[in-house]
Amino acid sequence: MKNFKYELVHEDAKTKARLGKLNIFGKVVETPIFMPVGTLATVKFLSPEDLKKIHAGIVLSNTYHLWLRPGEKIVKQAGGLHKFMNYDGPILTDSGGFQVFSLADTRKINEEGVTFKSHLDGSTLHLTPEKSIQIQMDLHSDIAMSFDECIPYPSDYEYTKRSTERTIRWAKRGLAVHNIDDQALFGIVQGGEYTDLREACAKELAALDFDGYSIGGTSVGEDKPTMYKMIEDAIRYLPQDKPRYLMGVGAINDLLNGIERGVDMFDCVLPTRIARHGTLMTSKGRINIKKAMYADDFTPVDPECDCECCQNYTKAYINHLFRTKEGLGMRLMSIHNLRFLIRLMEEARQAIREDRFKEFKEEILASYPFDERGF
Known about the structure:
Number of helices: 15
Low-confidence stretches: none
Strand order of the largest sheet: 4-14-13-12-11-10
Strand content: 15-25%
Helix content: 40-55%
Number of strands: 16
Distance between the termini: 42 Å
Structural class: alpha/beta
Mean pLDDT: 95
């Protein structure tokens, strides 16, 4: 029997927000949780030691990219991802489905799988549900994802229906070949913007008794009300005693709205990507450290933050590092943005524990000057 279990500790009195504990083969993390993305077995500019200092918990890596470089067999020879990247915390791998559909310009989808061209050298690749699961077993992550089709938004009903039904069949095929006890496997709920398709997909996957469930196909161009409806349409049919994971979401308003609807896990490249472009998330709103106004600002990036960047360095220094393209600047800004979102999750968990998540969410949304992207 797998040593993988979600425990619902407390549900907020006014919302569906959940405080939980996720036991991942002896490694326990609290939820809701934000997971940094380390696509190629590294969170850009950060070491595993940096991740531990910011209390990262689960880290995500990508099946598609590691399949191409260095290859899953190399990682397996190293002893799996944990030893390869020297990270002893929990690791989640996504199936590669999103990358196949977002990076491959030409692809052919059929019942067997997807044939497409490598974004690196143009070579022909073929990925099936079974192949995706085999790669993830070789990578030996703690949590693996089913192979699914991530469709664009908008897509018409008939295409979405065919795609969703195929995703369910692919989930069954992946589940059939997954055969290691120390790796959890999640099903992915698709269905686009259509309530009945989300319901059907969630119910069928729930009946298959996956270790957890992901909500896919969101944050692909739809407006916020549509996105939140997609979450609601899926989550109401997912089991209470399994973790729920909203894939690819990292904007503050989306995180809080997801938690309010009962989501436990999130990931996104957003905090590290915008950091590398000079944007920092702070308790007073975002700042663009490139601006000349910060060249002689000797205050911390965020006086309320406990990260290495804010405790030891000033905006003036970070401005200097960014302008001179020094790698230390990228590292410190990435540390800060990730710690900011991880702290937000810590505060959200405390608010749920005290039955005040609704007030907490409203306070954050009222005080933070969001743009249309949510940060």
